[in-house]
Amino acid sequence: MKWMKRLWGNHFFDAKKSSWVKHQTSASGEQLQRGFVTHILDKIVELFDTIMNNRDNKFKLIKRLGVKLNKEEKELVEKKLLKRTMQKWLPAGDAVLEMIV
Fold it and tell me: Rounded CA gap, 39 and 33, in Å?
């Protein structure tokens, strides 16, 4: 829960120190990204780019995210593969149901 709170607001991740800070500039003067961008948004952008540009490492990336695709799903291409991967990785239906209950 503590980690989730750091994704929102003025919490920045310093990758070189592997630590969270509350200011946007590191000790060395480098601009830091918010935690949400570093840990969530960048991963989504990387997934979109890799699948839509049909890169060779797409299944390696999908596996790294913990998504398991069956044989038929692995035959999907571009937008259909992206849609199925996103459905399995970030199931919006489950999230909405959990918010309601």
Answer: 10
Tell me how far apart the alpha carbons of residues 35 and 15 are, in angstroms, rounded to a whole number: 10
Element holding 13 (H helix, E strand): strand 12-14
CA separation for the pair 97, 101 (Å, rounded): 6
Long-range contacts of range 49-58, CB-CB < 8 Å, 24 or more positions apart?
A: 51/78, 51/81, 51/82, 51/85, 52/78, 52/79, 52/82, 54/78
Show the tokens assigned to 47: 């997934």
Residue 81, judged by CB atoms within 10 A of its CB (0-12, 13-18, 19+), counts as buried
Q: What is the pLDDT of residues 81-90, one digit of tens each?
A: 999 999 998 8
Number of residues written out for the chain: 101
Q: Which amino acid is at 27?
A: A
Q: pTM value?
A: 0.73
